[in-house]
Structure formats: structure tokens, C-alpha cells
From TrEMBL:
The keyword Ribonucleoprotein does not apply. Residues 422-567 form the Protease Do-like PDZ domain. Residues 70-83 have a biased composition (Basic and acidic residues). The keyword Cell membrane does not apply. GO terms for cellular component: nucleus. It holds the Pfam family PDZ_3. Residues 1-13 have a biased composition (Basic residues). One of its GO terms (biological process) is proteolysis. Residues 1-26, 38-84 are annotated as: Disordered. This is Protease Do-like PDZ domain-containing protein.
Length: 569
């Protein structure tokens, strides 16, 4: 803070100079700025004595970028959102106290989002967990729409929004949820909500060191909160909620629980991003992340173009850097060639028919790719070439130039979304399951692994499941990884009780492609025995007639409404 800053009501040391020239615009402006900065300092110092929730050892251990969860509410006080006034200056004279305006006029477009969540129970897929409430932030854009974070309204049963300074909560409808980019779009049917509100305007992608102001309703109070900082870094970030990598901004403004979905403004009052996650690490402080306008506009335009969110496409290849000169020479690359080597291609990707392993990607849509996989971004900056892919829409085509056996080829490739063998999310739908003779079969997903092994599932889950999660590729669009989740103990399954999270490879010597195919094969089986081939060469054999008869009693014992989830019937 500038040393010249003074508290209100006291003359600065250079007050004599200001009085000597009362018409000086510079003197007036400096005095106004000094008084505003002093007021800000006073506000900050007043809050330093407030109580803070003591961190537990578990929280201190967090060392990864985490999604800023919406604040869970217990009992809350009523909101009192007062407007903060500032002194404005007149160009040709001293400040006029009659000219009063709001600190940031765009703050009236920032709303508080209340959501009631009912999450599925992936370990007991026929049930749901106990509902809970959360609060987060959002903001109004054109077309009578509200943007917030996807994780703020995930598994929602009811969503309400409240304007700044209002005591009314309005029911909202979720129009679209973009899990990959962590953005959700809402609307409110009540016309009263939209009265007197001007939507926010989006600004350009900021540069490094540009000032940003994050506005929202974080934990620690009920009224609107403003924090400020600068853009520290612009690069491809890991979006924790969607398990994807997209363009992101790193800022040094505080982003806390409840800030999720709030806008980040530039110094012109334009929205340049959405707050969505922060870094919790013992060696890091005030590292927050913002979804930038290119990603936001992609989400909005995707919805407007298709009537729904279709996602961000991928190239569908794994690649290797070509920085080693011997490696480049062995692949037939001359000094004029730069690019990356294709290691593997997704079998479900459209380009699997035209690209081959060991092809060298030289350029994407006319932009040359460097040996480290980067492309020019802005003046003095480079970024991963996946940024170019993420700018496209599902179904778009891109011109890819490759080097194959010292010859250059060009292909127009249709881009599609990523099909993972173990998906990062299931689109907000309840998990699928099938039960026979107490054996609970289900499809593996990241939420399932998190439910079974906690947030550190990538360390605690079985090695084979982790290997498939990280490296396995789906061979077809409908392929799933099916496991025996657990065995509900009964007389018919004696000796099989300890089978847990074990992959099902085949049924009666027929490969298991997905959960529906397994359920269909079991239900239509007329053979004497049901034989399940599991991983590690383990088998389960049951008598068909007795297994189907025992299933009814097992369902009744455990109060399970159906042996098969509704999406499989």
C-alpha cells in the first residue's frame, strides 16, 4: 500500500499544496484515491480479528488443486446487502458529494445460488445419500440466463437464486451443465427477478499482471464479498471437477468456499472469468483459478448452437515429445520439421482410421506444433496445442498435417468427445447395477472409485483398477468395466463373500462388453449353471434355477426395490 495513504478526516502532509491550487484535478484525484484506499485498509484491518475455523490435519494435508465447493449451510442469518457508495470527481472542480455511484455497478448482476443436492450412493446404487444444502455464487448474462459452476448444482433437486439487496429467493431451472468445463447455465421463470438488472458483458482474455476483482458470496458472511489480485499465469490447467485440461487463469486473489461461480472483473468492469477452484498446499498461499472467457463463450455458443451442452472435443491420441535429436533422426525428421510423435490412438476416435502410431503431428489447422507440443499463443507466450483442439466444437473438422515415413500427409479429421473406459462422471445420472444371487454388479466410474476408496482413490484403489483407469482405452463406444461390487451374504453364495471390486471378464465363456449385456445374458440363460469368469483366473459358479429363486429373498432382506436399475430395463 502506498505510504501516502491517510485516514479520513486527517490532512495529508501535502495538504498545503492542494489548498494552494484548489482547482488542480491532480490534487483532487490523489486525495480521493487516498481516502478510498484508507477506507479499504480500515475494512481489512477490522476483519483481521474475526474468528477463523481451525484447520484439521486432514485439510492441511491437501496438496492438490481442489474445486472450491459451494458452502454447506447450517443455520444462517438473513442477508443485509447494502450498497457501498463512493465519492466521484468532477473534471473542472473539486469533488461533488451529490454525485454518488456504486463501487462496481456490475455487482448488482452477481447473485447468490442456493442448491439442495441429493447425491447417488455409488456403493449402494439402489439408494441415494442424505440431501444437503449449499450456497455459491453466480451472475446474470444476456438472454435471461445465469451462469455458475457445474459443481455448485451437481445432483441438484432444487436450485434457488437471490439478487443482491433482495430478501426473495427465486426458483431456478438448470438449462445445461458442462461437467468438463465446470460451468452450469440456469434461468428463472419469474419476470420479477429480471427487473432492474443489467447483464454482465464479457471482456477479452486478460494479460499477465492485469488486475482482476473476484466478487461472490464466500464462507465467512452472508453479504457480497470482493477480493482483488492480478493474473499470475495463463496456461492449460487441470479442471478437477471434470478431470479435463482446458485453458485457465491463475490469480492471487483469495477464492474460498462459496466463491464458486462468481465473476472475475477486469478494471473496466467486464467479466473475464468465473472463479472455480483453488490450490491448497502448505507451501502455497492465495493461488486461485478462474475459467477464462474463451472457455465460457465455448460453453454458451455450444448450448446456443445445439440446444444442449455437447462437450469439448479431443484429438484422441497420446503423444510423445520429439526433443531428442537422435529420436527425430530415427523418425525421418529433418531440421525443417518439428512436431510430436503419436504413441497411441483411441480406438473409438474418428481419426483412428487415418492416423497411425509413430506418425508425427507437424501442424493442427495450419498452426505449427513444436517438438515440445506447444504452439504460439500470444506475444512472448506458448501454450499446449490441445488448446487449439479445445477451441473446436464436437463434430467440427480440422486439418492435421503429419509426417509418415519421411513423407508429409494431410487429413481432414472429424473431432469428437472423449470416450473413457472408466468415465470421470456419468452426467448426473444414478449409477447402474444388476443383482443376481446376492452378487452386485456395477460399472466402474471415477465417482464409484471415490465412493469406495475416498478422495485418495488414486492411491488406495486396487492396482489393476488404477491401471485401467489411467491407461486402458475403450475398444467400442458402449464398452464398460464391470465389477462385482460386493456380495450380499446368503446361503447360496457361501464361500464367495470376500469377492469385492473384482472385474468380470466373461459369462459362460462369452466376453462381457457392458452391464446391460451381462444382465441380458444372465436373464436369458437356460443352462444349468451360471459361470462368471473374474480377473486373476477366479471363477464363480451358481446353479441357475436356485440363483434366480434366491435373488427374490435377498432383495427382500436388504430392502432393495429391484434387481436391476431402471436404465437397463
Amino acid at each position: 500500500m502506498d505510504k501516502a495513504v491517510r485516514k479520513r478526516g486527517r490532512k495529508p502532509k501535502n495538504a498545503v499544496d492542494a489548498e494552494a491550487n484548489p482547482n488542480s484535478n491532480t490534487a483532487v484525484a490523489e486525495e480521493v484515491v487516498a481516502s478510498l484506499n484508507a477506507a479499504a485498509d480500515t475494512t481489512k484491518s477490522d476483519r483481521r480479528g474475526s474468528k477463523r475455523r481451525r484447520k484439521t490435519g486432514k485439510e492441511k494435508a491437501d496438496d492438490v488443486a481442489i474445486v472450491v465447493s459451494p458452502e454447506r449451510r447450517a443455520s444462517r442469518h438473513s442477508d443485509h446487502n447494502g450498497d457501498c457508495d463512493i465519492l466521484t470527481t468532477v473534471a473542472d472542480g473539486p469533488p461533488q458529494w451529490e454525485s454518488v455511484g456504486k463501487v462496481v455497478p456490475s455487482m448488482d448482476a452477481v447473485v447468490k445460488v442456493f442448491c439442495v443436492h441429493t447425491e447417488p450412493n455409488f456403493s449402494l446404487p439402489w439408494q441415494r445419500k442424505r440431501q444437503y444444502s449449499s450456497s455459491s455464487s453466480g451472475f446474470i448474462i444476456g438472454g435471461r440466463r445465469v451462469l455458475t459452476n457445474a459443481h455448485s448444482v451437481e445432483h441438484h433437486t432444487q436450485v434457488k437464486v437471490k439478487k443482491r439487496g433482495s430478501d426473495t429467493k427465486y426458483l431456478a431451472t438448470v438449462l445445461a451443465i458442462g461437467t468438463e468445463c465446470d460451468i452450469a447455465m440456469l434461468t428463472v421463470n419469474d419476470d420479477e427477478f429480471w427487473e432492474g438488472i443489467s447483464p454482465l458483458e464479457f471482456g477479452d482474455l486478460p494479460a499477465l499482471q492485469d488486475a482482476v476483482t473476484v466478487v461472490g458470496y464466500p464462507i465467512g458472511g452472508d453479504t457480497i464479498s470482493v477480493t482483488s489480485g492480478v493474473v499470475s499465469r495463463i496456461e492449460i490447467l487441470s479442471y478437477v471437477h471434470g478431470s479435463t485440461e482446458l485453458l485457465g487463469l491463475q490469480i492471487d486473489a483469495a477464492i474460498n468456499s462459496g466463491n464458486s461461480g462468481g465473476p472475475a472483473f477486469n478494471d473496466k468492469g467486464e467479466c473475464v472469468g468465473i472463479a472455480f477452484q483453488s490450490l491448497k498446499h502448505e507451501d502455497a498461499e492465495n493461488i486461485g483459478y478462474v475459467i477464462p472467457t474463451p472457455v465460457i463463450m465455448h460453453f454458451i455458443q455450444d448450448y446456443e448452437k445445439n440446444g444442449e451442452y455437447t462437450g469439448f472435443p479431443i484429438l484422441g491420441v497420446e503423444w510423445q515429445k520429439m526433443e531428442n535429436p537422435d529420436l527425430r533422426m530415427s523418425m525421418g525428421m529433418g531440421n525443417e520439421h518439428k512436431g510430436v510423435r503419436i504413441k497411441r490412438i483411441e480406438p473409438t476416435a474418428p481419426e483412428s482410421n487415418v492416423l497411425n502410431p509413430s506418425d508425427i503431428i507437424l501442424s493442427f489447422d495450419g498452426v505449427n506444433v513444436a517438438n515440445d507440443g506447444t504452439v504460439p499463443f500470444r506475444h512472448g507466450e506458448r501454450i499446449g496445442f490441445s488448446y487449439l483442439v479445445s477451441q473446436k466444437y464436437t463434430g467440427d473438422k480440422a486439418l492435421v498435417k503429419i509426417l509418415r515415413k519421411s513423407k508429409i500427409h494431410e487429413f481432414n479429421i472429424k473431432l469428437a468427445t472423449h470416450k473413457r473406459l472408466i468415465p470421470a462422471h456419468i452426467g448426473g445420472q444414478p449409477p447402474s447395477y444388476y443383482i443376481i444371487a446376492g452378487f452386485v454388479f456395477t460399472a466402474v466410474s471415477v465417482p464409484y472409485l471415490r465412493s469406495e476408496y475416498g478422495k485418495d482413490y488414486d492411491f488406495d484403489a486396487p492396482v489393476k483398477l488404477l491401471d485401467k483407469h489411467l491407461h486402458a482405452m475403450a475398444q467400442s463406444i458402449d464398452e464398460q468395466l464391470i465389477v462385482v461390487s460386493q456380495v450380499l451374504v446368503a446361503d447360496i453364495n457361501i464361500g464367495y463373500e470376500e469377492i469385492v471390486n473384482t472385474q468380470v471378464v466373461a459369462f459362460n465363456n462369452k466376453p462381457v462388453r457392458n452391464l446391460k449385456s451381462l444382465a441380458d445374458m444372465v436373464e436369458s440363460c437356460n443352462e444349468e449353471f451360471l459361470k462368471f469368469d473374474l480377473e486373476y483366473d477366479q471363477i464363480v459358479v451358481l446353479r441357475t434355477k436356485m440363483a434366480k429363486e434366491a435373488t427374490r429373498d435377498i432383495l427382500l432382506t436388504h430392502c432393495i426395490p429391484s434387481a436391476i436399475s431402471s436404465d437397463l430395463t
